Amino acid sequence: MLVSKILNNNVIIADDPHYGEVVVIGKGIGFGRAEHDSIDSEAAEKMFILRSRREQEQYKQLLPQVDEQLIEVMNEAIQTIGNRIAAPLNEHIHVALTDHIAFALKRMEKGIAFQNPFLYETKEIYPEEYELAEYVVNLIEERLGISLEPDEVGFVALHIHSAITNRPINEVREHSELIADLVNLIEQNLEGGLDRTTLDYSRLLTHLRFAIERICRGEEVRATDRLAELLAREYPEMYSLAWKLMKVMEKKLGLPVYKAEASYLTVHLQRLADKDGI
């Protein structure tokens, strides 16, 4: 590869014989380099290469606004995430997550708190991503001496999930917010509220996550009419609540929800309402 532009000590633009113009990221990769210098392609094995022109341009716009030390930490964090999940990450994580953390640090400097209303739900729904997010936040504290608020772990987890699943971060956020809205509706309709420490609650969150994903894929679930009739007769309140939840999902997602979902939701809701109910 030939260096075409040095953005800072850790990031350069290079001409790659296979991919054309690329953004090559690596600790000290730009130090002491000059334009047209040659870099052995093998040296890029542990570096990130942004092959998308759109991602390159966004990253180049972001770099002047972000401290070089943070760039270095984020590159290390993203590389570790990719290694741990053993799957390719969507390249946009370099822009989106770095930008999010930089903005979070600026908010901290100004004393602006930003609460995460669905932190607990995020931890339950995306446990692997949450664990990786904790690693990112801990690495920032270790390398930069800055302790981010616990709420930030949840936001970082959503960015990681977005990169793993190739889904836009806005869609991931919307689905998380939808789950939080559904949980609030359930809590309003259950006597005594919800115990978020139970296994049944975790099962409900997992079901809601996969139900939303099924709805978005247009994937049908099946349940017999006899089961639906039995549940409606034995647990009318929870069956009615299940239909309310389905209507909320239909409205928020703009997609139809198969009626069989009512049966599965009723089972989960009844478990929460009465341990001995089912």
Q: Would you give an account of this structure?
A:
There is one protein chain. This protein is of the alpha+beta class and 278 residues long. It folds into three domains: 55 residues, Transcription Regulation, Sacy, Chain A (Roll); 102 residues, PTS-regulatory domain, PRD (Orthogonal Bundle); 104 residues, Orthogonal Bundle (PTS-regulatory domain, PRD). The protein is 60% helix and 8% strand. The protein is built from eleven helices and four strands. Strands 1-2-3-4 form a four-stranded antiparallel sheet. Strand 1 and strand 2 form a beta hairpin. Helix 3 packs antiparallel against helix 6 and helix 7 packs antiparallel against helix 10. The protein is elongated, with a radius of gyration of 23 Å. The termini are far apart. The model has no long low-confidence stretch (mean pLDDT 89).
Quick overview of this protein structure:
This protein has helices spanning 53-62, 68-85, 93-109, 119-125, 127-144, 151-165, 169-189, 199-217, 225-234, 236-253, 261-273, and strands at residues 2-8, 11-16, 20-25, 48-50. The chain is an alpha+beta fold and 278 residues long. It has a four-stranded antiparallel beta sheet.
Topology of helices and strands:
Blueprint: E1 2-8, E2 11-16, E3 20-25, E4 48-50, H1 53-62, H2 68-85, H3 93-109, H4 119-125, H5 127-144, H6 151-165, H7 169-189, H8 199-217, H9 225-234, H10 236-253, H11 261-273
Antiparallel strand pairs: 1-2, 2-3, 3-4
Helix pairs in contact: 2-3, 2-5, 3-6, 4-5, 4-6, 5-6, 6-7, 7-8, 7-10, 8-11, 9-10, 9-11, 10-11
